[in-house]
UniProtKB/TrEMBL annotation:
Record Pfam families: Pyr_redox_2, Rubredoxin_C
Single Gene Ontology MF annotation: ferredoxin-NAD+ reductase activity
Signal peptide as annotated in the record: none
Residues in NADH-rubredoxin oxidoreductase C-terminal domain copies: 325-379
Gene field: hcaD
This protein's name: NAD(FAD)-dependent dehydrogenase
Keywords, sorted A to Z: FAD, Flavoprotein, Oxidoreductase
Enzyme class: oxidoreductase
Cofactor(s) the record lists: FAD
Organism: Candidatus Nanohalococcus occultus
Length: 390
């Protein structure tokens, strides 16, 4: 192949995987990977175990700088890309770099609480640096509050509780992860959290903080309940890191792509979490932040950028590994749902759209997951929904 120039912005699961796949298909290519982080690729999923104190930091690392050198990929650590000039096909970072194809895999940043005024003991979580500060906070704190009823919030709550910290987990709605679970399924998760020492508080939206100087001393919710704290951690979603490029974006600022992960600008692709793409599987626009999904997007983008054909057809799987029962989510959580609780610790919820299976959430009873994933990808109508519970 000719000596093409590839620029990849972001060294997460999507960016690093794309670089690897480009190199596998183009021995002569010039490949640059830019990241504003100070360390090469690490396993973001394993950060939840690292925060608990049960996994040494070195075991979260996936690549070192030598990995990039061996593959003749130029890695620019601690380097922020300021602008992508799509007209002249170049970027501005620690210098000016031209490209033939560019991948934006910049992900997102934690969304901050409206009540945040820069308090020293208020923590957010996404990067390795964040994980280190949360780990230190959890080890030092005696009382903590965690805010945010999603998949990342549960990791923060368990991190504090497993460091022998009195932990109050404040969830705005009726139950944890209401997008994927009803109250019957969430009861299992709430109970497992309580067994780990987490005080689960539902219907508890944050109202205000009580403070002394730069420290939060108490959290007050809209019901007037007050929780004394040494530390607070929040996971209320992310905002996309998409300001470096002028392409079509959705109302939340996420970069939009087609089913081939191409943006509205020629030769610019986007991948990873906080990217909205057209999914041939789900027949609609999709955003997904799961690790395996971002990795698959990066692999696909690398192939597309080197000239392969096809559409991005992928069904993700996400697990929560904190409990003595397995939690697994496959596919999407939209459409109509039906659920079944088999026993105290076994539950399944299935999501359908126009009689097509689009998603499944399983607790305890996770057998048949590959068959369900295949059904989701095939998109064939399901005649007997009840059979899928068995």
């Amino acid at each position: 192949m000719s000596e093409s120039k590839y620029i990849i912005i972001g060294d997460g699961a999507a960016g690093a995987t794309a670089a690897e796949n480009i190199r596998d298909r183009d021995d002569e290519a010039e490949i640059h990977v830019f990241t504003d982080e100070t360390e090469p690729l690490y396993n973001r999923i394993m950060l939840k175990t690292y925060m608990k104190g049960s996994l040494p930091k070195q075991y979260t690392r996936l690549h070192d700088e030598n990995w990039y050198e061996k593959r003749d990929i130029e890695l620019h650590l601690d380097t922020r890309v300021e602008n992508i000039d799509t007209e002249n096909k170049q970027i501005e970072a620690d210098g000016t770099y031209g490209y033939d194809k560019c991948l934006v895999a910049t992900g997102g940043s934690p969304r901050k609480l409206p009540q945040d005024e820069g308090y020293d003991n208020l923590k957010y979580m996404w990067t390795m640096e964040n994980a280190e500060t949360v780990k230190e906070s959890a080890e030092d704190a005696e009382k903590a509050a965690v805010i945010g009823g999603g998949l990342l919030g549960i990791d923060l709550a368990v991190a504090y509780a497993e460091n022998d910290c009195e932990t109050h987990y404040l969830i705005r709605g009726e139950n944890w992860w209401s997008r994927g679970l009803d109250e019957e399924g969430a009861e299992i998760i709430h109970r497992k959290l309580e067994e780990l020492g987490v005080n689960v508080v539902t219907n508890s939206a944050l109202e205000s903080f009580e403070t002394e100087g730069d420290e939060i001393t108490a959290v007050v919710d809209e019901n007037g309940e007050r929780y004394e704290v040494d530390a607070v951690a929040a996971a209320i979603g992310q905002k996309p890191n998409s300001g470096i490029i002028d392409v079509e974006k959705n109302e939340s600022g996420m970069i939009e792509t087609d089913e081939e992960l191409r943006t509205s600008e020629k030769d610019v692709y986007a991948a990873g979490n906080m990217v909205e793409y057209v999914s041939p599987v789900f027949q609609r626009k999709i955003v997904n932040g799961a690790w395996d999904h971002s990795e698959a997007m990066g692999e696909f983008a690398g192939r597309k950028m080197t000239g392969e054909k096809g559409e991005f057809e992928f069904v993700n799987t996400y697990g929560v590994g904190h409990f003595n029962v397995q939690f697994l989510s496959i596919g999407a959580t939209f459409g109509q749902s039906v659920s079944k609780k088999y026993s105290e610790d076994e539950y399944r919820r299935l999501f359908f759209e126009d009689d097509r299976l689009v998603g499944a959430v399983m607790i305890g009873k996770t057998d048949g997951q590959e068959e369900l994933r295949k059904l989701i990808k095939e998109g064939s109508p399901v005649e007997n929904k009840e059979e899928l519970f068995e």
